[in-house]
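Example 473.
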Amino acid sequence: METRIFENTREGIKSAATLIRSGETVIFPTETVYGLGANALDSLAVKKIFTAKGRPSDNPLIVHIADFSEAEEFVENIPHTAKLLAEKFCPGPITMILKKKACIPAEVSAGLDTVGIRIPENKIARDFLKECGVPVAAPSANISGRPSPTNFEHVFEDMNGRVAGIIKGENSRVGVESTVIDLTSDIPTVLRPGGISVEELSEVLGDVLVSSELKDDGIPKAPGMKYKHYSPKGQTFILKGNVTDVAGFLEKRSKVNSVSVLVFDEFIEYMPKGINVISLGGKDDPKSAANRLFDALRECDALGVREIYAPEIPEQGLWRAVKNRLYKAAAARIIDAKSAKSVLFVCTGNTCRSAMAEGIFNISHKNAVAISAGLFVNQSSAEENAVKAAAELGTDIKNHIPRQLTPELIENSDIVLTMTDSHKKSLVGFENVITISGFVGEEKDVKDPYGGDMEVYRSCAREIKELIEKIKL
Ligand code: TXA
Ligand code: MG
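Predicted structure in complex with threonylcarbamoyladenylate:
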Protein backbone atom coordinates (compact mmCIF):
# COMPACT_ATOMS: atom_id res chain seq x y z
CA MET A 1 0.00 0.00 0.00
CA GLU A 2 1.26 3.48 -0.78
CA THR A 3 1.48 5.63 2.34
CA ARG A 4 0.76 9.33 1.88
CA ILE A 5 2.70 11.71 4.11
CA PHE A 6 0.78 14.79 5.26
CA GLU A 7 2.32 17.98 6.58
CA ASN A 8 0.71 19.90 9.41
CA THR A 9 -1.16 22.32 7.15
CA ARG A 10 -4.90 22.91 6.72
CA GLU A 11 -4.76 20.96 3.47
CA GLY A 12 -2.77 18.13 5.00
CA ILE A 13 -5.13 17.72 7.95
CA LYS A 14 -8.17 17.89 5.67
CA SER A 15 -6.87 15.20 3.32
CA ALA A 16 -5.92 12.95 6.25
CA ALA A 17 -9.41 13.35 7.76
CA THR A 18 -10.98 12.50 4.41
CA LEU A 19 -9.05 9.22 4.40
CA ILE A 20 -10.40 8.42 7.89
CA ARG A 21 -13.99 9.11 6.82
CA SER A 22 -13.54 6.86 3.80
CA GLY A 23 -12.55 3.92 6.03
CA GLU A 24 -8.75 4.13 5.79
CA THR A 25 -6.00 4.23 8.43
CA VAL A 26 -4.04 7.38 9.29
CA ILE A 27 -1.24 7.82 11.84
CA PHE A 28 -1.27 11.07 13.81
CA PRO A 29 0.96 12.61 16.49
CA THR A 30 -0.22 12.94 20.07
CA GLU A 31 1.54 14.28 23.18
CA THR A 32 2.11 10.71 24.46
CA VAL A 33 3.06 8.62 21.40
CA TYR A 34 1.89 8.53 17.79
CA GLY A 35 -1.48 6.80 17.25
CA LEU A 36 -2.65 4.58 14.37
CA GLY A 37 -6.21 5.73 13.76
CA ALA A 38 -9.34 4.58 11.97
CA ASN A 39 -13.03 5.50 12.21
CA ALA A 40 -14.12 3.91 15.51
CA LEU A 41 -17.69 3.42 14.26
CA ASP A 42 -16.59 1.44 11.19
CA SER A 43 -15.71 -2.21 11.99
CA LEU A 44 -14.00 -2.78 8.66
CA ALA A 45 -11.78 0.28 9.10
CA VAL A 46 -10.93 -0.81 12.65
CA LYS A 47 -9.87 -4.25 11.42
CA LYS A 48 -7.25 -2.56 9.24
CA ILE A 49 -5.56 -1.24 12.41
CA PHE A 50 -5.04 -4.76 13.73
CA THR A 51 -3.67 -5.92 10.37
CA ALA A 52 -1.28 -2.96 10.07
CA LYS A 53 0.11 -3.48 13.58
CA GLY A 54 0.03 -7.28 13.63
CA ARG A 55 -1.93 -6.90 16.86
CA PRO A 56 -4.02 -9.67 18.48
CA SER A 57 -7.70 -8.80 18.06
CA ASP A 58 -8.55 -9.47 21.73
CA ASN A 59 -6.71 -6.31 22.80
CA PRO A 60 -9.15 -3.36 22.83
CA LEU A 61 -8.48 0.07 21.33
CA ILE A 62 -8.76 3.54 22.81
CA VAL A 63 -11.29 5.90 21.19
CA HIS A 64 -10.00 9.44 20.63
CA ILE A 65 -12.34 12.43 20.51
CA ALA A 66 -11.75 16.16 20.22
CA ASP A 67 -13.79 17.24 23.23
CA PHE A 68 -15.13 15.55 26.38
CA SER A 69 -18.65 16.80 25.56
CA GLU A 70 -18.74 14.25 22.71
CA ALA A 71 -18.24 11.33 25.10
CA GLU A 72 -21.94 10.93 25.90
CA GLU A 73 -22.58 9.80 22.32
CA PHE A 74 -20.45 6.72 22.93
CA VAL A 75 -20.68 6.10 26.67
CA GLU A 76 -23.60 5.09 28.96
CA ASN A 77 -24.22 7.37 31.95
CA ILE A 78 -20.95 9.20 32.51
CA PRO A 79 -19.95 8.89 36.19
CA HIS A 80 -19.10 11.88 38.35
CA THR A 81 -15.48 10.68 38.59
CA ALA A 82 -15.12 11.01 34.79
CA LYS A 83 -16.37 14.58 34.89
CA LEU A 84 -13.91 15.46 37.65
CA LEU A 85 -11.00 13.96 35.72
CA ALA A 86 -12.05 15.59 32.46
CA GLU A 87 -12.19 18.98 34.11
CA LYS A 88 -8.73 18.62 35.55
CA PHE A 89 -6.79 16.60 32.95
CA CYS A 90 -8.54 16.81 29.57
CA PRO A 91 -7.25 17.38 27.06
CA GLY A 92 -4.24 15.40 28.23
CA PRO A 93 -2.49 12.04 28.61
CA ILE A 94 -5.32 10.10 30.27
CA THR A 95 -7.72 7.40 29.07
CA MET A 96 -10.91 6.70 30.98
CA ILE A 97 -12.51 3.25 30.79
CA LEU A 98 -16.30 3.68 30.79
CA LYS A 99 -19.43 1.63 29.96
CA LYS A 100 -19.82 1.72 26.19
CA LYS A 101 -22.92 2.36 24.10
CA ALA A 102 -23.94 -0.08 21.36
CA CYS A 103 -22.60 2.20 18.60
CA ILE A 104 -19.02 1.23 19.53
CA PRO A 105 -18.36 -1.99 17.62
CA ALA A 106 -17.01 -5.13 19.29
CA GLU A 107 -13.84 -4.83 17.18
CA VAL A 108 -12.93 -1.68 19.13
CA SER A 109 -13.75 -3.00 22.59
CA ALA A 110 -12.55 -6.55 21.86
CA GLY A 111 -15.94 -7.77 23.01
CA LEU A 112 -15.82 -5.99 26.41
CA ASP A 113 -18.77 -3.84 27.49
CA THR A 114 -16.44 -0.92 28.18
CA VAL A 115 -14.51 1.54 26.04
CA GLY A 116 -11.44 3.70 26.65
CA ILE A 117 -12.02 7.40 25.92
CA ARG A 118 -9.15 9.82 25.43
CA ILE A 119 -8.96 13.50 24.48
CA PRO A 120 -5.40 14.21 23.37
CA GLU A 121 -3.92 17.61 24.02
CA ASN A 122 -1.55 17.80 21.02
CA LYS A 123 -2.67 20.57 18.67
CA ILE A 124 -2.33 18.53 15.46
CA ALA A 125 -4.26 15.63 17.03
CA ARG A 126 -7.06 17.98 18.08
CA ASP A 127 -7.30 19.70 14.69
CA PHE A 128 -7.30 16.30 13.00
CA LEU A 129 -10.00 14.84 15.28
CA LYS A 130 -12.22 17.89 14.79
CA GLU A 131 -11.82 17.62 11.04
CA CYS A 132 -12.59 13.87 11.07
CA GLY A 133 -15.97 14.44 12.70
CA VAL A 134 -16.01 10.81 13.82
CA PRO A 135 -14.39 9.21 16.88
CA VAL A 136 -10.98 7.74 16.01
CA ALA A 137 -9.88 4.40 17.45
CA ALA A 138 -6.11 4.35 17.79
CA PRO A 139 -3.46 2.21 19.44
CA SER A 140 0.18 3.27 19.51
CA ALA A 141 1.51 3.31 15.94
CA ASN A 142 4.22 0.67 16.36
CA ILE A 143 4.37 -2.86 15.05
CA SER A 144 3.08 -5.01 17.90
CA GLY A 145 5.85 -5.80 20.38
CA ARG A 146 8.09 -2.87 19.32
CA PRO A 147 8.54 0.25 21.47
CA SER A 148 5.81 2.86 20.88
CA PRO A 149 6.89 5.56 18.38
CA THR A 150 7.54 9.05 19.73
CA ASN A 151 8.65 10.71 16.49
CA PHE A 152 7.96 10.64 12.77
CA GLU A 153 11.11 8.62 11.97
CA HIS A 154 10.05 5.76 14.27
CA VAL A 155 6.58 5.76 12.74
CA PHE A 156 7.94 5.71 9.22
CA GLU A 157 10.35 2.89 10.08
CA ASP A 158 7.56 0.63 11.37
CA MET A 159 4.57 1.64 9.27
CA ASN A 160 5.49 2.97 5.84
CA GLY A 161 3.52 0.88 3.35
CA ARG A 162 1.15 -0.48 6.02
CA VAL A 163 -1.20 2.50 6.43
CA ALA A 164 -2.94 4.93 4.07
CA GLY A 165 -1.47 8.07 5.61
CA ILE A 166 0.84 9.58 8.21
CA ILE A 167 0.57 13.13 9.56
CA LYS A 168 4.05 14.40 10.21
CA GLY A 169 4.30 16.14 13.56
CA GLU A 170 6.79 17.05 16.23
CA ASN A 171 8.35 14.65 18.74
CA SER A 172 5.92 13.51 21.43
CA ARG A 173 6.20 15.68 24.53
CA VAL A 174 5.42 13.05 27.16
CA GLY A 175 6.98 10.02 25.48
CA VAL A 176 5.08 7.29 27.34
CA GLU A 177 1.45 6.38 26.71
CA SER A 178 -1.58 7.75 28.54
CA THR A 179 -2.61 6.62 32.00
CA VAL A 180 -5.47 4.13 31.65
CA ILE A 181 -7.95 4.38 34.53
CA ASP A 182 -10.98 2.13 34.94
CA LEU A 183 -13.95 4.18 36.21
CA THR A 184 -16.43 1.30 36.07
CA SER A 185 -15.12 -0.39 39.23
CA ASP A 186 -16.19 0.70 42.75
CA ILE A 187 -12.86 2.35 43.35
CA PRO A 188 -11.16 3.93 40.32
CA THR A 189 -8.33 1.65 39.27
CA VAL A 190 -5.23 2.53 37.27
CA LEU A 191 -4.71 -0.26 34.72
CA ARG A 192 -1.67 1.31 33.07
CA PRO A 193 0.50 4.04 34.63
CA GLY A 194 1.18 6.86 32.18
CA GLY A 195 1.45 10.59 31.62
CA ILE A 196 -0.79 11.53 34.58
CA SER A 197 0.50 10.15 37.86
CA VAL A 198 -1.43 8.14 40.44
CA GLU A 199 -0.73 10.89 42.98
CA GLU A 200 -2.31 13.52 40.69
CA LEU A 201 -5.35 11.28 40.22
CA SER A 202 -5.70 10.74 43.97
CA GLU A 203 -5.76 14.46 44.55
CA VAL A 204 -8.90 14.66 42.44
CA LEU A 205 -10.58 11.33 43.21
CA GLY A 206 -9.42 10.36 46.70
CA ASP A 207 -8.95 6.59 46.80
CA VAL A 208 -7.32 5.19 43.66
CA LEU A 209 -6.18 1.60 43.27
CA VAL A 210 -3.27 0.52 41.11
CA SER A 211 -3.96 -2.72 39.32
CA SER A 212 -1.58 -5.50 40.18
CA GLU A 213 -1.76 -6.32 36.47
CA LEU A 214 -3.52 -9.64 36.88
CA LYS A 215 -6.66 -10.56 38.72
CA ASP A 216 -6.57 -13.70 40.88
CA ASP A 217 -8.05 -15.76 38.06
CA GLY A 218 -5.12 -14.76 35.85
CA ILE A 219 -7.18 -12.75 33.39
CA PRO A 220 -5.53 -9.40 32.76
CA LYS A 221 -7.71 -6.37 33.47
CA ALA A 222 -6.25 -4.33 30.65
CA PRO A 223 -6.03 -7.00 28.00
CA GLY A 224 -2.92 -5.31 26.59
CA MET A 225 -0.97 -6.27 29.68
CA LYS A 226 -0.78 -9.96 28.91
CA TYR A 227 1.27 -9.40 25.78
CA LYS A 228 5.01 -9.16 25.73
CA HIS A 229 5.66 -5.46 25.26
CA TYR A 230 8.44 -3.09 24.40
CA SER A 231 10.90 -5.89 24.04
CA PRO A 232 14.17 -4.88 22.42
CA LYS A 233 16.09 -7.55 20.49
CA GLY A 234 18.92 -7.55 23.02
CA GLN A 235 18.56 -9.29 26.40
CA THR A 236 17.40 -6.56 28.78
CA PHE A 237 18.13 -6.41 32.51
CA ILE A 238 17.58 -3.98 35.36
CA LEU A 239 21.01 -3.59 36.98
CA LYS A 240 21.08 -2.52 40.59
CA GLY A 241 24.03 -1.51 42.72
CA ASN A 242 26.33 1.42 43.42
CA VAL A 243 28.04 3.09 40.50
CA THR A 244 31.42 1.40 41.09
CA ASP A 245 29.88 -2.08 41.10
CA VAL A 246 27.73 -1.25 38.08
CA ALA A 247 30.75 0.04 36.14
CA GLY A 248 32.79 -3.04 37.11
CA PHE A 249 30.06 -5.42 36.04
CA LEU A 250 29.53 -3.66 32.71
CA GLU A 251 33.25 -3.63 32.01
CA LYS A 252 33.32 -7.39 32.44
CA ARG A 253 30.27 -7.89 30.24
CA SER A 254 31.75 -5.67 27.54
CA LYS A 255 34.55 -8.21 27.14
CA VAL A 256 32.10 -10.99 26.24
CA ASN A 257 29.19 -9.26 24.56
CA SER A 258 28.00 -6.05 22.89
CA VAL A 259 26.43 -3.91 25.61
CA SER A 260 24.24 -0.82 25.89
CA VAL A 261 23.52 0.90 29.16
CA LEU A 262 20.69 3.34 29.83
CA VAL A 263 22.02 5.67 32.48
CA PHE A 264 21.30 8.90 34.32
CA ASP A 265 23.53 11.84 33.37
CA GLU A 266 25.15 12.01 36.82
CA PHE A 267 26.72 8.57 36.27
CA ILE A 268 27.75 8.75 32.62
CA GLU A 269 31.37 9.65 33.40
CA TYR A 270 31.83 6.45 35.42
CA MET A 271 30.73 4.12 32.63
CA PRO A 272 33.46 1.94 31.08
CA LYS A 273 34.75 2.52 27.57
CA GLY A 274 33.65 0.17 24.84
CA ILE A 275 29.97 0.10 25.73
CA ASN A 276 27.20 2.13 24.19
CA VAL A 277 25.97 4.67 26.75
CA ILE A 278 22.48 6.16 26.36
CA SER A 279 21.34 9.04 28.56
CA LEU A 280 17.98 8.94 30.35
CA GLY A 281 18.47 12.55 31.50
CA GLY A 282 19.05 13.63 35.08
CA LYS A 283 18.37 11.22 37.96
CA ASP A 284 15.74 13.55 39.41
CA ASP A 285 14.03 14.26 36.10
CA PRO A 286 11.31 11.70 35.30
CA LYS A 287 10.05 13.85 32.41
CA SER A 288 13.35 13.41 30.55
CA ALA A 289 13.42 9.69 31.27
CA ALA A 290 9.85 9.24 30.00
CA ASN A 291 10.61 11.34 26.97
CA ARG A 292 13.76 9.40 26.03
CA LEU A 293 12.83 5.86 26.98
CA PHE A 294 11.35 4.44 23.77
CA ASP A 295 13.92 6.26 21.66
CA ALA A 296 16.64 4.63 23.77
CA LEU A 297 15.20 1.15 23.31
CA ARG A 298 14.94 1.67 19.56
CA GLU A 299 18.57 2.86 19.47
CA CYS A 300 19.63 -0.41 21.09
CA ASP A 301 17.77 -2.35 18.39
CA ALA A 302 19.27 -0.26 15.62
CA LEU A 303 22.78 -0.92 16.96
CA GLY A 304 22.02 -4.62 17.33
CA VAL A 305 23.53 -4.79 20.84
CA ARG A 306 22.96 -8.10 22.57
CA GLU A 307 22.76 -6.98 26.20
CA ILE A 308 20.95 -3.92 27.51
CA TYR A 309 21.14 -2.68 31.08
CA ALA A 310 18.85 -0.11 32.70
CA PRO A 311 18.85 1.40 36.18
CA GLU A 312 16.34 0.77 38.95
CA ILE A 313 13.48 3.27 38.80
CA PRO A 314 11.50 4.75 41.72
CA GLU A 315 7.82 3.95 42.17
CA GLN A 316 6.30 7.40 42.33
CA GLY A 317 4.89 10.13 40.10
CA LEU A 318 5.76 9.89 36.42
CA TRP A 319 8.57 7.45 37.35
CA ARG A 320 5.91 4.76 37.76
CA ALA A 321 5.16 4.87 34.02
CA VAL A 322 8.87 4.74 33.16
CA LYS A 323 9.39 1.83 35.52
CA ASN A 324 6.40 -0.07 34.12
CA ARG A 325 7.72 0.15 30.54
CA LEU A 326 11.34 -0.61 31.39
CA TYR A 327 10.55 -3.53 33.67
CA LYS A 328 8.36 -4.99 30.95
CA ALA A 329 11.18 -4.65 28.46
CA ALA A 330 13.39 -6.46 30.95
CA ALA A 331 10.67 -9.04 31.73
CA ALA A 332 11.25 -7.96 35.34
CA ARG A 333 14.79 -9.41 35.45
CA ILE A 334 16.67 -7.49 38.12
CA ILE A 335 20.29 -8.38 38.76
CA ASP A 336 22.79 -7.18 41.34
CA ALA A 337 26.02 -5.74 39.91
CA LYS A 338 28.04 -6.91 42.91
CA SER A 339 26.98 -10.53 43.00
CA ALA A 340 25.54 -11.40 39.56
CA LYS A 341 27.35 -14.26 37.84
CA SER A 342 28.44 -14.44 34.21
CA VAL A 343 27.71 -17.87 32.74
CA LEU A 344 28.91 -19.26 29.40
CA PHE A 345 27.33 -22.35 27.80
CA VAL A 346 29.41 -24.22 25.25
CA CYS A 347 28.58 -26.85 22.64
CA THR A 348 29.85 -27.71 19.17
CA GLY A 349 28.21 -25.27 16.73
CA ASN A 350 26.23 -22.96 19.08
CA THR A 351 23.10 -23.50 17.00
CA CYS A 352 21.19 -25.98 19.21
CA ARG A 353 22.17 -27.06 22.71
CA SER A 354 24.09 -24.10 24.08
CA ALA A 355 21.79 -21.61 22.33
CA MET A 356 18.74 -23.25 23.98
CA ALA A 357 20.61 -23.37 27.31
CA GLU A 358 21.35 -19.63 27.12
CA GLY A 359 17.68 -18.81 26.47
CA ILE A 360 16.32 -21.16 29.13
CA PHE A 361 18.86 -20.01 31.70
CA ASN A 362 18.15 -16.32 31.12
CA ILE A 363 14.44 -16.67 31.85
CA SER A 364 14.86 -18.90 34.88
CA HIS A 365 17.88 -17.65 36.84
CA LYS A 366 17.44 -14.47 38.82
CA ASN A 367 20.90 -13.09 39.43
CA ALA A 368 23.02 -14.16 36.49
CA VAL A 369 23.49 -13.50 32.78
CA ALA A 370 24.23 -16.27 30.32
CA ILE A 371 25.65 -16.27 26.82
CA SER A 372 26.71 -19.20 24.68
CA ALA A 373 29.40 -20.10 22.18
CA GLY A 374 30.53 -23.02 20.02
CA LEU A 375 33.84 -24.77 19.41
CA PHE A 376 33.36 -24.78 15.63
CA VAL A 377 30.90 -22.18 14.45
CA ASN A 378 29.84 -22.15 10.81
CA GLN A 379 26.22 -21.03 10.83
CA SER A 380 24.58 -17.65 11.29
CA SER A 381 21.43 -18.52 13.23
CA ALA A 382 20.01 -21.10 15.62
CA GLU A 383 18.50 -24.29 14.15
CA GLU A 384 14.80 -23.88 13.40
CA ASN A 385 13.83 -26.83 15.59
CA ALA A 386 15.92 -25.43 18.44
CA VAL A 387 14.08 -22.11 18.14
CA LYS A 388 10.75 -23.97 18.27
CA ALA A 389 11.75 -26.19 21.19
CA ALA A 390 13.00 -23.17 23.15
CA ALA A 391 9.78 -21.27 22.37
CA GLU A 392 7.77 -24.17 23.81
CA LEU A 393 9.65 -23.64 27.05
CA GLY A 394 8.89 -19.92 27.01
CA THR A 395 12.08 -18.44 25.63
CA ASP A 396 12.68 -16.70 22.32
CA ILE A 397 16.02 -17.46 20.64
CA LYS A 398 15.12 -16.59 17.07
CA ASN A 399 17.53 -13.63 17.13
CA HIS A 400 20.40 -15.77 18.39
CA ILE A 401 23.63 -15.42 16.44
CA PRO A 402 26.07 -18.32 16.91
CA ARG A 403 29.37 -17.18 18.35
CA GLN A 404 32.86 -18.68 18.09
CA LEU A 405 34.35 -19.62 21.45
CA THR A 406 37.55 -17.73 22.34
CA PRO A 407 39.89 -17.84 25.35
CA GLU A 408 38.75 -14.29 26.20
CA LEU A 409 35.13 -15.43 26.50
CA ILE A 410 36.17 -18.16 28.92
CA GLU A 411 38.47 -15.92 30.95
CA ASN A 412 35.78 -13.29 31.43
CA SER A 413 33.06 -15.72 32.51
CA ASP A 414 32.60 -16.94 36.07
CA ILE A 415 31.43 -20.40 35.03
CA VAL A 416 31.70 -22.20 31.70
CA LEU A 417 29.28 -25.10 31.28
CA THR A 418 29.84 -27.55 28.42
CA MET A 419 27.29 -29.99 27.05
CA THR A 420 29.60 -33.00 26.93
CA ASP A 421 32.73 -34.33 28.52
CA SER A 422 34.57 -34.14 25.23
CA HIS A 423 33.76 -30.41 24.92
CA LYS A 424 35.24 -29.99 28.37
CA LYS A 425 38.33 -32.03 27.54
CA SER A 426 39.02 -29.82 24.56
CA LEU A 427 39.25 -26.81 26.87
CA VAL A 428 42.23 -27.85 28.97
CA GLY A 429 43.94 -25.32 31.17
CA PHE A 430 40.82 -23.37 32.22
CA GLU A 431 39.74 -23.88 35.81
CA ASN A 432 36.23 -22.53 35.39
CA VAL A 433 35.15 -25.12 32.79
CA ILE A 434 32.91 -28.04 33.80
CA THR A 435 30.16 -30.07 32.13
CA ILE A 436 26.64 -28.88 32.87
CA SER A 437 25.77 -32.29 34.35
CA GLY A 438 28.99 -32.36 36.39
CA PHE A 439 28.12 -28.97 37.85
CA VAL A 440 24.89 -30.37 39.32
CA GLY A 441 26.49 -33.60 40.53
CA GLU A 442 25.44 -35.87 37.68
CA GLU A 443 27.43 -37.56 35.00
CA LYS A 444 26.04 -37.64 31.49
CA ASP A 445 26.46 -35.94 28.15
CA VAL A 446 23.71 -33.75 26.67
CA LYS A 447 23.64 -35.33 23.21
CA ASP A 448 23.56 -33.31 20.01
CA PRO A 449 20.00 -33.16 18.57
CA TYR A 450 21.36 -31.86 15.23
CA GLY A 451 19.60 -33.51 12.29
CA GLY A 452 16.96 -35.06 14.55
CA ASP A 453 13.21 -34.47 14.29
CA MET A 454 11.22 -32.06 16.48
CA GLU A 455 10.74 -34.70 19.20
CA VAL A 456 14.52 -35.10 19.51
CA TYR A 457 14.93 -31.33 19.96
CA ARG A 458 12.05 -31.19 22.41
CA SER A 459 13.51 -33.85 24.62
CA CYS A 460 16.97 -32.25 24.42
CA ALA A 461 15.49 -28.90 25.48
CA ARG A 462 13.68 -30.55 28.38
CA GLU A 463 16.87 -32.32 29.46
CA ILE A 464 18.73 -29.00 29.45
CA LYS A 465 15.92 -27.31 31.35
CA GLU A 466 16.00 -29.97 34.06
CA LEU A 467 19.75 -29.56 34.47
CA ILE A 468 19.48 -25.75 34.54
CA GLU A 469 16.84 -25.93 37.26
CA LYS A 470 19.33 -27.80 39.44
CA ILE A 471 22.07 -25.19 39.00
CA LYS A 472 22.81 -23.31 42.23
CA LEU A 473 25.13 -20.34 41.86
O1 TXA B 1 -1.28 7.40 24.88
C1 TXA B 1 -1.98 6.49 24.46
O2 TXA B 1 -2.86 5.94 25.15
C2 TXA B 1 -1.75 6.04 23.00
C3 TXA B 1 -2.13 7.21 22.09
C4 TXA B 1 -2.07 6.83 20.64
O3 TXA B 1 -3.37 7.71 22.44
N1 TXA B 1 -2.52 4.87 22.71
C5 TXA B 1 -2.18 3.65 23.20
O4 TXA B 1 -3.00 2.62 22.78
O5 TXA B 1 -1.25 3.45 23.94
P1 TXA B 1 -2.63 1.07 22.95
O6 TXA B 1 -3.68 0.35 22.19
O7 TXA B 1 -1.23 0.83 22.51
O8 TXA B 1 -2.82 0.78 24.46
C6 TXA B 1 -4.12 0.83 25.02
C7 TXA B 1 -4.16 0.07 26.34
C8 TXA B 1 -4.04 -1.41 26.14
O9 TXA B 1 -3.24 -1.94 27.20
C9 TXA B 1 -5.47 -1.89 26.24
O10 TXA B 1 -5.56 -3.22 26.67
C10 TXA B 1 -6.07 -0.92 27.23
O11 TXA B 1 -5.44 0.31 26.94
N2 TXA B 1 -7.52 -0.77 27.00
C11 TXA B 1 -8.15 -0.24 25.95
N3 TXA B 1 -9.48 -0.35 26.07
C12 TXA B 1 -9.71 -0.96 27.25
C13 TXA B 1 -10.88 -1.37 27.94
N4 TXA B 1 -12.09 -1.18 27.46
N5 TXA B 1 -10.72 -1.99 29.14
C14 TXA B 1 -9.48 -2.19 29.65
N6 TXA B 1 -8.34 -1.83 29.02
C15 TXA B 1 -8.44 -1.23 27.85
MG1 MG C 1 0.73 0.10 22.49
